[in-house]
Design a protein that fits this description.
The protein has 79 residues and is α+β, with helices and mostly antiparallel strands. The chain has helices at 10-24, 26-31, 44-55; strands at 33-37, 60-64, 69-74. The chain has a 3-stranded antiparallel beta sheet with strand order 1-3-2.
Length: 79
C-alpha cells in the first residue's frame, strides 16, 4: 500500500512525535536502535503510514517483530 502525499492528521502527528521522542532518547542514541510499538488507541492506518515513511529513510533499518512492534536500527558514519 502506498501513501500519497496526504496531509498528516492530528493522530498521525501525535504518533510521529511519540516515535521521534523514543528515537531521541539517550539510550536509543547510545545503542543506535529502539523498539517501537503501536498502542491500541493508535490507528493502524497511521501506524502503517509511519512505517512506510520510516522505511524510505536512508541508513535506517526496520526489523518487524511480533505484536505491532518494530525495531529501528541506524548507523551513523562519523567520518
Amino acid at each position: 500500500m502506498l501513501f500519497p502525499s496526504l496531509p498528516p492528521t492530528d493522530t498521525y502527528l501525535a504518533l510521529a512525535c511519540r516515535v521521534q521522542d523514543a528515537i531521541r532518547s539517550p539510550q536509543a542514541q547510545r545503542l543506535h536502535e529502539v523498539t517501537i510499538s503501536r498502542r491500541p488507541c493508535e490507528s493502524r492506518q497511521d501506524w502503517q503510514r509511519l512505517l512506510y515513511e520510516l522505511g524510505s529513510t536512508t541508513d535506517l533499518r526496520l526489523v518487524s517483530l511480533c505484536d505491532d512492534r518494530v525495531r529501528l536500527c541506524w548507523y551513523i558514519d562519523r567520518s
